[in-house]
Fold:
Amino acid sequence: MNCKPAIQLWLPFVKKGEQDYSEIVTESPSLEVQLMERVVCTDNMFKAYRHVLSNGGSPGIDGMTVKELGPYLQAHWPEVREALLSGVYEPQPVKRVNIPKPGGGTRKLGVPTAVDRLIQQAVLQVLQPEWDPTFSPWSFGFRPGRSAHQALRCAQKHLGSGYGYVVDMDLEKFFDRVNHDKLLGEVVKRVSDGRVVTLIRRFLKAGVLDHDCLHETVEGTPRGGPLSPLLSNPLLDQLDRELERRGHRFARYADDCNIYVKSLRAGRRVLESISRYLTSKLKLKVNEAKSAVGRPWERKFLGFSFSRRGFRLFVSESAEKRFKEKIREITGRTRGRSIRQLAQELRAYLLGWREYFGHSEVRSGFKELDSWIRRRLRSYHWKQWGRRGYRELRKRGVSRRLAWNTAKSAHGPWRLSRSPALAFALPGKSFDELGVPRLYIKR
Structure:
């Protein structure tokens, strides 16, 4: 592996004029034992550094930003590298951050320090290519070249093959409750370099700093670091293999697993049996309130449901509800932002939403959502105009009488957003010109 081109462009790890020792590895009986040397290889570290730098993110408990990471490494990388190679590196606790969940409540994130984030990314880059081929073909989450949409297509194939009932399994707080011993047992099966196993164990048990109070971590993989998604797959791969052994049809994306069967009775039997397996063998708990057996159009999978005829994809009711909540938040009339600022924020969200949910095969609802969004924007305009409403309508070509009647109406902004005056003054084309994308696009 030639690291020289990277050294010519980047200098956080090797100072100019110094000898590069990153390619020197200790003698060992197999390449696997040299895993840590491959982690700290200059090429791998530069790749990890660029990735962390491009991702940005908030600082950890030490307050160091990713922009400050380069200067820090120029001064301290030899010590960090030596600690990794000798197996004595100690990660710092992660910083607790709570973010709102789409369905209500909060999700706990653990933000590692910039240095720990870099090391996790470097370990990920070495482990992922080796681990990924060992995972089940019916697993789609956190794997390169695989996506949620592929999991949905897989589910469609199972449904089209006559497996018309779905066992919708929800693991209760999976990332927060992963059993460390079970997880490390799976890691040891795949990694024979003890230094890497020890490093992963220390990342798992580094602790969480929450409001200046340090909490010990005895279970779970803190979400927020690059390694956490990868570490979810070795343990759940046991579930995949058990399902394969029993001959079940299924699709799994991270901790969201749907099993497809031919009858309601079979589905109930599978749900009970697999729940016992998860509890006794993997030390995981099934959320009984969210897990159920039903028809695919009664359940949701990765934000989608399936139609009664042809099992076509459409946006689930809960996903559409979350979408409207977000649009209401962006277009809230008391935010005091200009319409152009609002349009840019709306554009970023709509493009991302359309990129994911644009795979829907039942798209009639998209027209209604487009119309609803434009009503929200007209309502926002009218609220911002205030006493200028009459003049703004006249300026946009509305007749004097209609403009006067609208301006003096006792109705509120939302009701007036459907009025002839606002529809004429603010046609859909005006929002297209502002850059607000439409969800419905003719194919």
Q: What stands out?
A: The chain is about 50% helix and 10% strand. The radius of gyration is 27 Å. The first helix runs from residue 4 to 9.
